[in-house]
TrEMBL record, chain A:
Coiled coil: none annotated. Belongs to the ABC transporter superfamily. It comes from the Bacteria. This is Amino acid ABC transporter ATP-binding protein. Residues 7-241 form the ABC transporter domain. The lineage of its organism: Bacteria, Pseudomonadati, Pseudomonadota, Alphaproteobacteria, Hyphomicrobiales. Gene3D superfamilies: P-loop containing nucleotide triphosphate hydrolases.
From TrEMBL, chain B:
Residues 20-212 form the ABC transmembrane type-1 domain. Belongs to the binding-protein-dependent transport system permease family. HisMQ subfamily. PANTHER family: L-CYSTINE TRANSPORT SYSTEM PERMEASE PROTEIN TCYL, MEMBRANE COMPONENT OF AMINO ACID ABC TRANSPORTER. It comes from Shinella curvata. InterPro entries: AA_ABC_transptr_permease_3TM (IPR010065), ArtM/GltK/GlnP/TcyL/YhdX-like (IPR043429), MetI-like (IPR000515), MetI-like_sf (IPR035906). Pfam families: BPD_transp_1. It is a multi-pass membrane protein. It is found in: Cell inner membrane; Cell membrane. Its main location: membrane. This is Amino acid ABC transporter permease.
Length: 246, 225
């Protein structure tokens, strides 16, 4: 493993009880790469991406993030997590805190920054996602698209080197999908290392260095978006893409 | 019949005022300790460990089932029989009442707090954990404030009923509001005036609590309005 590797997943198996949800997953994400993971519902996409910051625990194989292996011996998992931003399908904003407080709370408690500095950083990223004027509102007062952009800003405030996205647009009304995707595209343009579970094929085409297709807990095939979308080799991939495009 | 001047005298008398302070002090102490320990018991009740859940259930079963009067008398008269320790000077009526009422209050608050914490979605904890926050930070800044918002109306009800239950401590001669009134009546035989004065105290305290409850609910509901 060299210094260019951001995440290395090797031979990972995971079970929920007797049900094997991940089967021998190998995946390397280099710094600056944008990986898009797609696949049918229940194929293990969320589970895989959640193993990358240990929200889920894998039983076999190894996952190394920025040179740190994620194991039960690892005492400071919070250090790894603060360097890996995560954006959820349902935003998971804190409803009792304002937008600004959502963006400063972890900076203050985890990065131990002074309030003034945390607020400055938060405002920078809220401007970046184009909603600085909502800083004093509560999440419940925002539209879904705005909430998801706050969630992205909140993650960016920790100055992460990797961003994980788990279907960030699938809980949104269609007219709000674009504003979130545009934010993600601009992140990609800045060279952020990204792993995105999404079925937004145009997004994948535009930014993905590689698209990974999963089914039944396995990686079935992977390739550049152009090749994977136009000439998938596996029958299951063809069927899935066929359904998605119609 | 009812004599207004005696009634006013009773209201502004030093013993009754001190009795009221004792009632309030006792209630606050019991509530504070029960909130903390109730949270502990509540988290045991929601624990994945079967033995922990079983223990929590047993505790709640015992102290929700036992009448407050019985527990008070048991603690005050029974404990000194069990051990030398409880015959020492520090084992005052105040401490005994505090212990007895806390034992009961913990059982009631545990269930309220457990369900309030369960009502805070799992996504909240994950969202905070993904930002690198520690377990206790998540508890303090993310889950607890949201759980309290849910629990405040029920907690306030429990507090008000606790405040009135403290009057039972008159049987162990704690000098709270009711005991003080009884003493005064024993020498003056002015039932109406002294019971009336005590009632005024209870009503005033409960009214203040109700106002406080509205205020707390208003503050905690920021972001949900
Ligand atoms: N906590 C859990 N306990 C047991 N089974 C689970 C748990 N979480 C997920 N599963 C199962 O694991 C499988 C993979 O779930 P996962 O959420 O990773 O799929 P996914 O590819 O993200 O699907 P979707 O597109 O619907 O989000 C599913 O069959 C799901 O039912
Ligand atoms: Mg999923």
């Amino acid at each position: 493993m060299n210094t260019q590797t951001a995440i290395q997943v090797a031979g990972v198996n995971k079970w929920y009880g007797a049900f094997q949800v991940l089967k021998g997953i190998d995946l390397t994400v280099n710094k600056g790469e944008r990986i898009v993971i797609c696949g049918p519902s229940g194929s293990g996409k969320s589970t895989l991406i959640r193993c990358m910051n240990r929200l889920e625990v894998h039983q076999e194989g190894s996952i190394i993030v920025n040179g740190v292996e994620l194991t039960s011996q690892l005492k400071r998992i919070d250090r790894v997590r603060s360097d890996v931003g995560m954006v959820f399908q349902h935003f998971n904003l804190f409803p009792h805190l304002t937008v600004l407080e959502n963006c400063t709370v972890a900076q203050r408690w985890v990065r131990k920054l002074a309030k003034k500095q945390a607020v400055e950083i938060a405002m920078t990223y809220l401007e970046r996602v184009h909603i600085p004027e909502k800083a004093d509102k509560y999440p419940g007062q925002l539209s879904g698209g705005q909430q998801q952009r706050v969630a992205i800003a909140r993650a960016l405030c920790m100055n992460p080197s990797i961003m994980l996205f788990d279907e960030p647009t699938s809980a949104l009304d269609p007219e709000m999908v674009k504003e979130v995707l545009d934010t993600m595209i601009s992140l990609a343009a800045d060279g952020m290392t990204m792993v995105c579970v999404t079925h937004e094929m145009n997004f994948a085409r535009e930014v993905a260095s590689e698209v990974v297709f999963m089914d039944g807990g396995q990686i079935i095939e992977r390739n550049t978006p152009d090749i994977l979308f136009s000439a998938p080799t596996h029958e299951r991939t063809k069927r899935f893409l066929g359904k998605l495009l119609h | 019949m009812f004599q207004l001047d005696l009634f006013l005298q009773a209201i502004f008398s030093a013993p009754l005022f001190k009795g009221a302070l004792l009632t309030i002090g006792l209630s606050l102490c019991v509530m504070a300790v029960s909130l903390v320990l109730g949270m502990g018991l509540g988290s045991m009740a929601g624990s994945p460990r079967r033995s922990a859940r079983w223990l929590a259930t047993l505790y709640v079963w015992l102290f929700r089932g036992a009448p407050a009067l019985l527990v008070l008398l048991f603690v005050w008269n029974g404990l000194p029989q069990i051990s030398e320790i409880f015959r020492a000077g520090w084992f005052t009526p105040f401490f005994a009442a505090f212990l007895a009422l806390s034992l009961i209050q913990i059982a009631y608050l545990a269930e309220i707090l457990r369900s309030a914490f369960a009502a805070v979605g799992h996504g909240q904890r994950e969202g905070a954990a993904a930002l690198g926050m520690h377990r206790w930070q998540i508890f303090l800044v993310i889950t607890m404030p949201q759980a309290l918002r849910i629990a405040v109306p029920a907690l306030m009800n429990e507090f008000i009923s606790l405040l009135k239950t403290t009057s039972l401590a008159t049987v162990i001669s704690l000098k709270e509001l009711m005991t003080v009134s009884q003493f005064a009546i024993a020498t003056s035989f002015r039932f109406l005036e002294w019971y009336g004065a005590a009632l005024v105290y209870y009503l005033v305290i409960v009214s203040v609590l109700t106002l406080a409850q509205n205020r707390i609910e208003y503050v905690l509901s920021r972001g949900y309005r």
